[in-house]
Amino acid sequence: MTAQLFAGLIFGSIGFVAFVYGKKESRVKTMLLGLALMGYPYLIPGTVAVFVVGALLTAALLYFRNE
Question: Which DSSP category does 47 fall into?
Fold first, then answer.
């Protein structure tokens, strides 16, 4: 339970920064990935799943940063 809350806090913070940056730079993909990072911990049960999905969304954020 504690690890899941911690993961939600970390990935939610990354998502918030990505959303603000995407909005500032008018990057739709970055904004959408930021929203996804902020919202997915509420929808996915299980600590491991939260970490895996968060890592994948963060990797996608890094992959699309130059587009």
Answer: H
Side-chain-facing half-sphere of 28: CA atoms under 13 Å: 0
Exposure letters 9-24 (e unless 16+ CB within 10 A, then b): ebbbebbeebbeebee
**DSSP assignments along 6-32, one per residue:** HHHHHHHHHHHHHHHHHHHHT-HHHHH
Q: Count of H helices and E strands in the chain?
A: 3, 0
Q: Is the pTM of this model over 0.85?
A: yes
Residue 66 pLDDT class (50, 70, 90 cuts): confident
Structure tokens at 55: 């890592």
